[in-house]
Specification:
CATH class: Alpha Beta
Structural class: alpha/beta
CATH superfamily: Cobalamin-binding domain
CATH architecture: 3-Layer(aba) Sandwich
Radius of gyration: 12 Å
Strand content: 5-15%
Order of helices and strands: HEHEHEH
Distance between the termini: 32 Å
Number of helices: 4
Helix content: 40-55%
CATH topology: Rossmann fold
């Protein structure tokens, strides 16, 4: 992962994000998603920012295991999931 978990949190705070989306291309980067989610839950953004994950190696089961709020297998469904997470 090229960006620290703290940077994700800073960016979410700076941009007043409602959703933080992450995608993994390789299985070796999937584990970092949980680090970001854990950092988010430990921050002042806990409960305010939803997390949506996806990417080629990511499954719905993995998303549930790491505590993501949503999962999508592709970009089109990610938009639908994001709208659902926001109550639209």
């Amino acid at each position: 992962m090229d960006i620290s978990s703290d940077r994700f949190i800073e960016a979410a705070r700076e941009h007043r994000a409602d959703i933080l989306c992450m995608s993994a291309l390789l299985t070796t980067t999937m584990t970092y998603m949980k680090e970001v989610i854990d950092a988010l839950h430990a921050s002042d953004l806990a409960g305010r920012v939803k997390v949506l994950v996806g990417g080629a190696p990511v499954t719905e089961g993995f998303a549930q295991t790491i505590g993501a709020d949503g999962y999508s297998s592709n970009a089109n469904n990610a938009v639908l999931m994001a709208r659902q997470l926001m109550g639209h």
